[in-house]
Write a structure and sequence with these properties.
Elements lengths: L2 E4 L5 E9 L2 E9 L5 E4 L3 H13 L1 H13 L11 E2 L4
Antiparallel strand pairs: 1-2, 1-5, 2-3, 3-4
């Protein structure tokens, strides 16, 4: 998972990127619904895996996104963004 940020309506936007030779595969969803959009190069099986990953880690993702939202020391270039690196 690349990033997650909390919105005022209580949802959290999650962006996932996977490095490839000339860039990144990309997908986004909102928690709690986990409906994927802006999907580039992820297969149905990949999205099934990511859906399970995001749902099983939702409490942690919500907590981190809320902490990031509450914090005032956020980059001016990317407000309300929390980066979580994974392979």
């Amino acid at each position: 998972m690349n990033s997650a940020y909390a919105r005022d309506d209580g949802t959290v936007r999650v962006a996932v990127e996977r490095p490839v030779d000339l860039g990144f595969d990309h997908a986004e969803c909102f928690l709690p619904a986990v409906n994927w959009f802006n999907v580039e190069c992820f297969s149905t099986d990949d999205l099934d895996f990511l859906t399970e990953f995001v749902r099983s880690n939702a409490p942690f993702i919500f907590e981190l996104a809320e902490r990031q939202k509450a914090g005032s020391a956020v980059s001016a270039l990317a407000p309300d963004v929390l980066l979580l690196n994974s392979k």
